[in-house]
UniProtKB/TrEMBL annotation, chain A:
Listed name of the protein: Multiple sugar transport system permease protein
GO BP terms in the entry: transmembrane transport
Domain ABC transmembrane type-1 stretches: 64-295
PANTHER family tied to this protein: ABC TRANSPORTER PERMEASE PROTEIN
Membrane topology annotation: Multi-pass membrane protein
Predominant cellular place of this UniProt entry's protein: membrane
Residues annotated as transmembrane: 7-26, 68-89, 101-122, 174-203, 224-248, 274-296
Gene Ontology cellular component list: plasma membrane
Family: Belongs to the binding-protein-dependent transport system permease family.
Domain of life from the UniProt record: Bacteria
Automatic annotation (TrEMBL), chain B:
Name listed for the protein in its UniProt record: Multiple sugar transport system substrate-binding protein
Residues in coiled coil: none
Keywords, sorted A to Z: Signal, Sugar transport, Transport
Annotated family: Belongs to the bacterial solute-binding protein 1 family.
Keyword Signal: yes
Any one biological process term the GO annotation gives: transmembrane transport
UniProt cross-references to InterPro entries, sorted A to Z: Bact_solute-bd_prot1 (IPR050490), SBP (IPR006059), SBP_1_CS (IPR006061)
Signal peptide limits: 1-20
Length: 306, 425
């Protein structure tokens, strides 16, 4: 009986995990084998029809490739910018407290809200970003005689060129920008915490040995930052891959499926075919696991962190 | 330690129960007092569930307020019948009703967007059991027809909506256009003039996800096309439809429409129209309050939608339903309530309050004096509908919403792909 005692302590947690994590996963996989009506009534098992439908759908390949590019672009940019910001915020400068607080803002605001605000700022008729572009164009033209269109700026509001979210080629960079914007605060803070754990005497020793600033960063800061960096990047990879509100609020994956990632595709499928949507969820689930494994391999988590 | 184990397990179990009851039910706001049988004093209580056409609980135009007044008047006239109305918002009503039905607590009366799902299981009263013949005969025939499954009517059309062309009179005047367009050629000429006078969106074209299926259908109707042909076969890529979208593509390419129509929602276009940035756009009675709040108040007109060779004599009809469940066996009381609703002032009031359209000939006659509503009412008796009774429609609709915008880039390809979805799934 004594042996069972720990169970009393971990039991509730295990049950909770079983109830809110494992059971839904099992249900998800089970649903992907079923034909389910629009009203949620299960009709029959139809494995592997749902999967065939997902894999053979015209846009599936593009969507998966886009999802991977989306994850890599957002996470790489986020980490790069956060490394710089963390370094900056680790210095002592007047107003540092204020600057650190300000950085929290994009993190504290709801992602959906941020995405909607950016969508409005990019509105082709009244968006403030387009207003600035127009005014800048007018200014350049008046002051320097430069034709605004040669710089990609506009002379007028409205019209196709003001509608940046209307085309995949201009919408994607904006989506990535917003995703980076909301991911940077968390990542920066995680890295800041990492920087704080690096003992000052190592830097002192490096200085005594006459190491250059770059060399110090490359050989001391980065390696010692690795645990924080790995965790921050890994959380970002999963978050960004599953990221839904930014794309949904700003483009709904349109035009067509040209800005849709796999999560958006799964959600759109849900509107017409719950079984196929579940199959897509399973694919997504698998993708997250694969991405995570690849990521851990690349960052050699086991060898050097532990 | 035994106690600890049991305690822990109990706690875990309790957590799960709480969790599962949150996930499974979602039926907050459901009256669970079981008052669906005869109440005290021989009075019968009818339980009713209705969708909220207003701005939600607490708003002056909330469904709660509307039904409270209707019920008060009804109960005054019929002291033996009590009606207990639960108003649920559109997002949740289907789920909550499904839960009620699954638990054997179906309401007596349900007002929502679809009735057909309940017919198969034999849950509904037939229409002739629950309204008087004169009410049934007054219903618009084309609408009532859609309330039938295998020849028997189960769904009563409740309210409807339709579409017409809104145009900005001020912008038209500034561009020197004397009359709103009646044909596609006139529409293009007007759009060009609007463009020249500096209007950024001469024609508001929402082919984005919100309601691409409606805008596309209205254009198809203008060329005698549609989603299905006269024989009831899918005809999305029919030559008529391809011609239609080739014409629309011409408008888009000339910059005469909203930019990138495949990403524009109807809401955005209507807001732009309200702000005076759009020359013309298709809209419904529900857009009137939006436009009246904007800069275009009293400066816009409504006409029938232009077709290729002349204005449409039809329009896109959309309707909601009311139905009665047979579980509690109160057809006579329900009949009294429905007759009261359709013949009394209530049907008129809901139409006026929420800018909806009536579904009875009598209702149309009463409203025919309203100039802004006239184009809608004219098209209503001859309305065209989505092929929503086809089981493929729901899947096709999702696909249309997502990809129809492509039809103004490559009409034949996009329509062909949609046709394939309709035919194979």
């Amino acid at each position: 009986m004594k042996k069972l005692e720990p169970l009393a302590w971990v039991g509730p947690a295990v049950l909770l995990i079983a109830g809110v994590v494992i059971w839904p996963v099992i249900e998800m996989i089970r649903s992907s084998f079923l034909q389910i009506s629009r009203f949620g009534v299960v009709r029959e098992g139809n494995f592997p029809d749902n999967y065939t439908k997902v894999f053979t759908s015209k846009d599936f390949g593009d969507i998966m490739v886009r999802s991977v590019i989306w994850v890599i672009a957002v996470v790489a940019l986020t980490v790069l910018i956060s490394l710089l910001l963390a370094q900056l915020f680790n210095q002592k400068f007047p107003g540092r407290k204020l600057a650190r607080w300000a950085l929290i803002a994009p993190w504290a605001a709801s992602v959906l809200m941020t995405a909607i605000v950016f969508k409005w700022m990019l509105d082709p008729e009244v968006g403030v970003i387009n207003l600035i572009r127009r005014d800048l164009g007018v200014f350049l033209n008046n002051t320097f005689g430069i034709e605004p269109s040669s710089l990609g700026l506009l002379g007028a509001m409205g019209g196709t060129s003001a509608d940046q979210l209307g085309q995949a080629s201009t919408a994607m960079p904006w989506l990535v920008f917003v995703a980076v914007f909301v991911s940077v605060p968390f990542t920066t803070y995680a890295l800041l915490a990492g920087l704080a754990t690096i003992p000052a005497d190592i830097y002192e020793a490096a200085r005594m040995d006459g190491a250059s600033k770059f060399r110090t960063y490359w050989s001391i800061t980065l390696p010692l930052l690795r645990p924080a960096l790995t965790v921050a990047a890994l959380i970002n990879v999963m978050n960004v891959f599953n990221s839904f509100p930014i794309i949904w609020a700003m483009t709904k994956g349109q035009p067509g499926y040209d800005t849709a990632t796999s999560t958006i595709f799964m959600y759109i499928l849900k509107g017409s075919d719950i079984g196929a949507s579940a199959a897509m969820s399973v694919v997504n689930f698998g993708m997250v696991i694969v991405l995570t494994i690849i990521f851990l391999r690349v960052s050699r988590w086991n060898k050097e962190v532990a | 330690m035994n106690i600890k184990l049991v305690g822990g397990a109990a706690l875990g179990l309790a957590t799960m129960l709480v969790l599962s009851s949150c996930g499974g039910g979602g039926s907050s706001g459901t009256p669970a007092d079981g008052g669906n049988t005869a109440a005290a004093g021989g009075a019968v209580t009818l339980k009713m569930v209705a969708a909220d056409y207003g701005d939600g609980p607490g708003a002056p135009n909330s469904g709660d307020n509307f039904w409270k007044e209707v019920v008060a008047e009804f109960e005054k006239a019929n002291p033996n019948i009590k009606v207990q109305v639960t108003v649920i918002n559109w997002n949740d009503i289907d789920k909550q009703v499904a839960t009620m039905v699954q638990n054997g607590q179906a309401p007596d009366i349900l007002q929502t967007g679809d009735y057909s799902g309940f017919v198969k299981d034999g849950l509904l009263h037939k229409v002739e059991e629950i309204v008087s013949p004169n009410v049934q005969q007054d219903l618009l025939a084309k609408f009532a027809e859609f309330g039938k499954v295998d020849g028997a009517a189960y769904g009563l059309p409740f309210v409807s909506s339709a579409r017409a062309l809104f145009y900005n009179k001020e912008l038209f005047e500034k561009a020197g256009i004397a009359e709103p367009p009646k044909t596609w050629d006139e529409l293009k000429a007007a759009a060009e003039k609007l463009k020249k006078s500096g209007v950024s969106q001469p024609f508001g074209l929402p082919l984005g996800q919100e309601e691409a299926q409606a805008e596309a259908f209205l254009w198809m109707l203008g060329n005698g096309g549609g989603y299905k042909d006269a024989a009831g076969k899918w005809a999305i890529n029919s030559p008529a439809n391809v011609e239609t979208f080739t014409y629309v593509k011409g408008l888009v390419d000339a910059g005469l429409t909203s930019p990138n129509p495949g990403t524009k929602d109807r809401k955005t276009v209507w807001e732009d129209f309200a702000a005076g940035k759009v020359g013309m756009a298709n809209g419904g009675p529900m857009s009137i309050p939006i436009f009246d709040k904007g800069a275009v108040k009293d400066k816009y007109g409504v006409v029938a939608i232009p077709g290729k060779t002349g204005p449409l004599n039809t329009t896109l009809g959309v309707m909601d339903w009311i139905m009665a469940f047979n579980q509690n066996k109160h057809p006579d009381e329900i009949k009294k309530f429905f007759d009261f609703f359709y013949t009394g002032p209530a049907a008129e009031k809901i139409v006026d309050l929420y800018k909806l359209l009536p579904v009875t000939n009598g209702g149309i006659t009463k409203l025919s004096g309203d100039e802004k509503l006239k184009p809608f009412l004219d098209g209503l008796p001859n309305a065209s509908f989505y092929p929503f009774q086809d089981p493929k429609w729901s899947e096709l609709n999702t696909q249309i919403k997502q990809t129809m915008g492509g039809a103004v880039k490559d009409p034949a390809k996009t329509l062909g792909e949609l046709q394939k979805v309709a035919e194979t799934g």
